[in-house]
User: Fold tRNA uridine(34) hydroxylase from Zhongshania aliphaticivorans.
Amino acid sequence: MDQFVVAALYKFVSLPNYHDMREPLLEVCLSAGVKGTLLLASEGLNGTIAGSRDGVDCVLAYLRNDDRLTDLSHKESFDNEQPFYRMKVKLKKEIVTMGVEGIDPNEVVGSYVKPADWNALISDPDVLLIDTRNDYEVDIGSFRGAVDPKTTSFREFPEYVRAHYKPQQHKKVAMFCTGGIRCEKASAFMKQEGFDEVYHLEGGILKYLEEVPEQESLWQGECFVFDNRVSVTHGLATGQHDLCHGCRRPINDTDKQSEFYEEGVTCPACFNVITEDQKKRFRDRQKQVELARLRNEEHVGAPPPARQRKARAD
Assistant:
């Protein structure tokens, strides 16, 4: 098969009937042979899918046939293997969870900055550059000079900003995230808090790595992605990180040399956190993975419960 197309997409738009959208969208995705995760909420749509060129185009065409999503944009990358195990469409309260009421990027949002103009902005010494991602994402790569809030969840971001920054002192703020969606809410929040000049990287890190030549880049390291590629680098090439199945954090070759690393079970970050019962479950799972590997089969675990019930009914 040709390379798999990986499409990351999101749009903030009022979807009051989002509950009713789930099953038809899931059926279209399954029929098109794509896999991944899409989130639906009253505030919009967010997610990443992967499949054949025709399959991904089919899903995108279905979505854009909805008058509210006609201008839905997406970003593409490519992989030699399917980066997802199954297809899921989830209903959520928010498509990116900040937990602050009244934040609506359709009402107010920061100024978008094209990747080509990003270097000039963040090289300005008067600009406060904030990485809005979580600590485990920042650990493997970020922009030179960026502040790491050391958050473990995006819910912690508002409290971090209120504790550390004041609109009167920080006149220019620039923010970035993986694909742009977190910065939509982060910049809307900061505008609401009274910050005047708020900028965010249009298309996120992924668009920057796609468009800005490596020799001109101010990005250092790799960018964590939420699929089986784990990380990407310049040109959106697959990076060198794997995933710890114990804590879901990215790990590198140095981590694998640690006495606390056990494939499919633990890494140095979680060895002392994961319980013995969890370690036993993870070891059992790893045995199944290795058996599937010996049989040259794909181990994906049990299908989602709803699909199990439907399969039994059929």
In short: Confidence is low (pLDDT under 50) at residues 302-314.
